[in-house]
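in:
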């Protein structure tokens, strides 16, 4: 969202997208195991797509923990390469 808000100079768009992503995360928390896994992400992570973004999360007994929000147009292995071991 930083890029959209600051670099692209579109703060209202960044706010709207941020609110949409929070809404998607809240809905996904009700069904944490329903998201698919992605080969580029750690095996315990799942994801849900929202428009061009992938919201990576870890399921937990009380919902989810959002780990990353990545632009789906990026090279995912590279975008996820700096993950801790």
């Amino acid at each position: 969202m930083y890029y959209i808000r600051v670099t692209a100079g579109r703060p209202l768009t960044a706010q709207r997208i941020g609110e949409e992503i929070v809404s998607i995360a809240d809905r996904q928390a009700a069904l944490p195991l329903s998201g698919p896994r992605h080969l580029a992400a750690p095996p315990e992570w799942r994801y849900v797509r929202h428009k061009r973004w992938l919201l990576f999360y870890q399921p937990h007994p009380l919902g989810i923990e959002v780990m990353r929000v990545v632009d789906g147009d990026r090279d995912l292995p590279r975008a996820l390469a700096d993950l801790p071991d």
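note: The chain has one domain: 2-74.
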